[in-house]
């Protein structure tokens, strides 16, 4: 009787060890990122005191807001073992659409113009989701294709023209320059989206399903998780966040043309990966992705202030990405070894 009851303790102990390993790896990653951020900020402030001036901090937060917002959306799709390379193009299309609507209709409420931009982004996300969940097109291929399609739409729509700040309502432009207690509206909006998404992923079943899909799609299907619906939702939500990013881009810069957001998708992927979102899917948090986005923004702003060549700026970001992926791979190998030991003990 005693031996029968004692057997289950082994896998439970191993499962606890696996959980501890995951928890340690996340804490180690977060602590490392915070340390890098602090060292970089302190070193830059010593070399250039204006870096931490009120205006310098404001510019830093404004620059980080879009990256944090889009990294939140990117996290949703990477968790499912996917990716969205079209985010920069979606942002550009939404930014130009929002600017066009507001400049053509002077009496239109700012909220209505913003809704148009978000709707454009959600529609683009719906296209991506349909290609991936219904058409079974690999996410890399599907979103690489839509990257060019959506960018082509922006160039066709713009026709070589651009919309300047003088064509848009002052209330809308105030969204890009206003602040509360020194914190820009743009960063507050990005943080609100970040917190809501983090709570959704952590406390709601639909959010946790994204982790299950990325960890083991076959097991998720056997568990009854509606994979197609969850994938569709993830890409629509990511598109809507990119659409909101387009609205904020137009409000911040005022002048919008067909090149808005070009290349931004690579910075967003880098932010998510550096922040601990496993490129292999199934692991990571939006808060880590936001921290990664903040670090990349600080790097892009601090290194020029230190007089460091642009080559080294990109090289450092690349090294961070490689290091993050290497760490994820190391953790996955340790987990696999722990599971194999657990299986052998059960036998």
UniProtKB/TrEMBL annotation:
Keywords: Cell inner membrane, Cell membrane, Membrane, Transmembrane, Transmembrane helix, Transport
UniProt-listed InterPro entries: ABC_transp_permease (IPR001851)
A Pfam entry, by short name: BPD_transp_2
Keyword Transport on entry: yes
Signal peptide (UniProt feature, chain positions): none
Chain segments annotated as transmembrane: 28-48, 60-79, 110-134, 140-159, 180-201, 232-254, 266-299, 311-331
Compartment(s) of residence: Cell membrane
Topology with respect to the bilayer: Multi-pass membrane protein
Keyword Cell division: no
PANTHER family, sorted: ABC TRANSPORTER PERMEASE PROTEIN YPHD-RELATED-RELATED, AUTOINDUCER 2 IMPORT SYSTEM PERMEASE PROTEIN LSRC
Record's subunit section: The complex is composed of two ATP-binding proteins (LsrA), two transmembrane proteins (LsrC and LsrD) and a solute-binding protein (LsrB).
Entry function: Part of the ABC transporter complex LsrABCD involved in autoinducer 2 (AI-2) import. Probably responsible for the translocation of the substrate across the membrane.
Name of the protein described by the UniProt record: Autoinducer 2 import system permease protein LsrC
Organism encoding this protein: Georgenia daeguensis
